[in-house]
């Protein structure tokens, strides 16, 4: 059996969690094993999970699991693993997936391999490659463990539904949890933005130090609005307090995979590229013809962004009116 953890926030599934479901299904097919999914907490989204071909959804319920609590999720999943003895547990390598799986590893006293790109299962040891240092190093690793605990690098593969629909049966599981497992728990939520998010937007217009100020982002907002996208930024920008951390793209920010990523006044440090290299196309706008971002970009405009960004916006407006 291969288990896949469906990570979600308040019952909204992380989009990349479907990539982990896809990997788990592929692994199960390769090993001739049963493919099952796990949901922790209330309101499992059975319809969306069913499309990915799991035969059973283990629904972990407990009064304490009314919202995200990393240690409690980890302990509950570890107890389920002990009762089912799967060959492997797969989750997506999001902050949440990595956090929960690290707890599972600690409870089971088994190694956990984060940010795997592909796996070749063997009779005992499994060979795998994994993303390190924000994607600037690909490591070959061998995993020997009773149960293989993995997270999949976000966007390392495309989520694909199962070829044929499977009737998903739901089995409840009640873990044994205590107060100490709730030491960290979501207790409140504050909405900072409505509509499309940085992680799912089809277009991201991102600004770096070259934008110069918080006010400088106004022209990026206008361009993003016209393209049906959102604004992102580099870490220098969040460090300077020009934009909130929720807008940061990169190794220590959000990993994005839009159709188009427009990098304005961003040099292209590896930690930034780690967050945007999944974009289908990258357009760099930079005054420096030697900027490293040009090595990752599909298109580039060399020049001052304070002239180029409004010029693109103007042309788009004209084209739409015309
Ligand atoms: P700079 O490197 O200063 O580049 C500014 C660019 O703007 C230059 O290329 C310049 O030519 C151009 N420019 C200037 N003026 C103009 C103009 N008028 N018109 C056009 N172009 C102009 N960074 C992230 O972004 N995300 C992360 O998640 C992240 N995580 C990190 C984690 C660690 C552990 C560490 C050590 C660093 C991390 N960083 C991250 C920081 C990263 O190393 C870089 O310092 C940062 O990305 C640089 O930001 P920048 O490109 O905006 O600034």
Question: Secondary structure elements and their pairing?
Answer:
Elements: E1 2-5, E2 8-9, E3 12-13, H1 17-31, E4 35-40, H2 46-50, E5 56-60, H3 70-84, E6 88-92, H4 95-108, E7 112-120, E8 126-132, E9 137-143, E10 148-152, E11 169-173, E12 203-207, H5 218-226, E13 230-233, H6 235-239, E14 260-264, H7 270-276, E15 281-286, H8 293-296, E16 299-302, H9 305-321
Parallel strand pairs: 1-4, 1-6, 4-5, 5-11, 6-10, 7-10, 12-13, 12-14, 14-15, 15-16
Antiparallel strand pairs: 2-3, 7-8, 8-9
Bound molecules: flavin-adenine dinucleotide.
What does this molecule look like?
The protein has helices at residues 17-31, 46-50, 70-84, 95-108, 218-226, 235-239, 270-276, 293-296, 305-321, and strands spanning 2-5, 8-9, 12-13, 35-40, 56-60, 88-92, 112-120, 126-132, 137-143, 148-152, 169-173, 203-207, 230-233, 260-264, 281-286, 299-302. The protein is an alpha/beta fold and 322 residues long. The protein has a 9-stranded mixed beta sheet with strand order 9-8-7-10-6-1-4-5-11, with helices on both faces. It has a 5-stranded parallel beta sheet with strand order 13-12-14-15-16. Helix 3 packs across helix 4 (95-108) and helix 5 packs parallel to helix 9 (305-321). It is elongated, with a radius of gyration of 21 Å. The N and C termini lie far apart (58 Å). The mean pLDDT is 95. It binds flavin-adenine dinucleotide. Residues 208-210, 234-236, 248, 250-253, 265-267, 269, 271-272, 275, 285-288, 291, 304-306 line the site of flavin-adenine dinucleotide (FAD).
